[in-house]
Amino acid sequence: MGRWRFVGRTDELSRLVNAATSPGGRGLFVSGTAGVGKSRLLAQSLEQLPALGCAVWSASANIATAGIPFGGLAQVLPADQPAGLTPAGTMRWAVEALHQQAAGRRIVIGIDDAHLLDPSSAALVYLIARSDNATVLGTLRSGEPVPLPIRALWTDDLVDHAELDPLSLAETDELLTAMLGEPVDAPSVDRLHRLSAGNALLLRELVIAAHASDELSRTYGVWRWTGRSHLPPSLDDLVDARIGQLEQGVRAVVELVAMGEPIGLALLHRATDSSDVEVAEERGLIRVVTHDRRSDVRLAHPLYGEVVRRRCPVTRARRLSAQLADLVEAVGTRRRDDLLRVAVWRLDSGTAQDPALLLKAGAQAFSQFDVPLAARLAGAALDTGGGYQAAELLATILMFGDRAAEAVGVLDAVTDQLTSETRRARWLTVRGMVSYWGLNRESTVAEIAADAQRLTDPANRARVVAFEAIMRLHRLECAEALRLSRSVLDRPAATVAARGLARCTIAHLQAARGELTLSGRAVEGVAAEAAQWRADMPYLQLALELARGTRLALAGDLAGIDAIVAAEFADLADAGDFRLGSGYLSILRAQAARLRGQTGEALRTSLGACAVLATSQVFAGLAHAERAQAAAMRGDVDSAVEAVAESDRAHTSGMAILYPWLEQARATVQAATGDLAGAVALLRDLVHRLQGDGFAGHEVLALHDLVRLGRADLEIGEPTVTGRRQSVAQRLSELSESVDGPLPSLMARHARAEYAHSGDQLLAVADAFAELELNVFAAEATSRAVSRLRAARSVRSHEANLRLAELLRRCDVVRTPALVVRQPALTDRERQIARLAARGLASRNIAEQLYISTRTVENHLQRVYNKLGVTGRGELWPVLRSMPEPEADPDR
User: Between helices 637-650 and 659-672, what is the axis angle to 10°?
Assistant: First the structure.
């Protein structure tokens, strides 16, 4: 892979440039660890300075020149040095020569690794910094001794000194995208960020190694890392340079921490010599993290652990793992994760003999949604004699790891162990779940209903019926799903998990019907009892999130969506490869980004969801539908059409409950192709279907899509008692009185304003949408208002246009019919001149570039101002962004 494009670090880059160019600029030295990005940052800032009127010289100190007088500045000093000068005379001559070459420009000296400068060069740098119209920029490695003249630069208040922090998660994400050319899915970004600790050099080496060993896979334009780390020799060398040669006692400390981090400080002292622990900390190999009264020890850098674990002989690694397990068991498994850690150490050391320990640990790992680890522990529990319980746990985990066929095999192998009705009930629910969602067998619903009738214990029957209810909900048998769920709640013997599943089914159905308040209460009730059902049924969290996410999306509650995608479950699902959970939450993230107008983020996130769910039969269709929405809104019609086709292929009849989202996406894409009549027909059919199903919550959104297409007057539904059908505006007004939340009322206002052709009312509606961060709806309403006000020759048209420009500044690329169709047409020449003017070119320069007169340019610009309702160049660009691209634009 080639050189990375410079991304991120905008604040640091601006600070360096300002330090060199601002009046009274003091210069700046940046310190940081090796590989954190200091050199690249300095080089990037120096590249910008010549265009800003600076005379720039750069040098890179190194160990080879550290003992040669002026060796560090050999690249800066003029070649024609007079002979016979003393060191002091050489410095005075060098400063004068630099000023002569600068010819009045500001002198900027950039020095990389200034801590390696020889004494003479360091003194010359100090002298340059003290001279008039000159400044110094430089980098230093943290922890290295700094020459006294360089240190004096900031102690004498000649320059500033700052520490360069590691890359943030967002900067790591941006850097990975720049290197690979396409986005990387969020879990992979998180793992690579943690393993590199935000160090750009280490990140680069990790990516190169992963790419070379095919550990990076690309699906739907998104890269995904397997998580395996076959470190290249270059990384070994980098880590060796930091760790160095270790004494036997210190190596024992580092290896024990590598195998068991985080490990309690007291345990580490018990297992090793305290003096070796102190040496390891002094050398920066380990770090002690104190929280409340607990002190844990970790390696100073995550890659140290990778290298140490890989180099540790197998026999020693097994011995250390067993030693760690013995240590923790000796003091008792008091911390929440101790049981899990002991089980893993026993497994790694080959001393795992207790299936009960492995079974409990596997259940704990699954409750934390760490699917690979849970599967490993459950498999080991089954192999060591865990019996039916281990098989049930393993099959459940395999289902959520997209290994449904294996799960069925595991379950069928233990049918002879169904010695009680309780076991049979649990076996029925797990096998039904695998068969229905994993293998897409619709006959499962009838089979599980028949099996439930044979159960005599009320609690066992309630568990199976709760599963039957949620399956019937997903296949759109809503009335039966509601009846069954209520019957579960009516059974006092039903477990907390069964009742929670039934309440999630009801909450989902209530949200679809527009009963958002009741749905929210039900979801909150299930969430409040999580501690009671998580050990028994951790995957209930997914049903909870689906019901909650549906309610929030229908309510347009973007803040609520932000809250759940930032909650603990989202982090656990991403980190633990719980794909159904992380995939669904990515779809929610994409929906929120799209409604805010951040279509680039929406497309990127939905592509990530498609990649995560590529082998899933549950939410894959929904992920592609959301990708289609984002692509269509960005004007990428071909990608949007392809995404709809992929959605149709991936969607299964077992997830029929999701059809409103898929059909809305289909209509959006139809409109993006220019077939507005086809889009209107699709939405009208969707409204009719939603009315038949009683999904008033979804109907509000479908009706509003018709308003956005300018069809608030369209007649829909069956004729009323008067013999006429309701218009979209009338139906929305009716629904606003029965569907909960502020959004239906606002959308009804939008419909009435559109129906009445009222620009003033449309502006008021736009303001209300903007307060909810629904920027796309706000911009569309404002765009309509601009058209209405212009047609009425209202004095408010200019104000409306400025508001439209402000709303579009909040958005990424947005190409919806409401923002495209209503824009006044510009000729190709007007558009060309307007674009150049918006980019800051003077009329004279535009005229020279287009070979026309300046007067012609001014005349064209005045016509553009009149058509767009703007007063000057500063208002042009946001309006131009909202207009469609012509097929052949000379300036495109």
Answer: 160
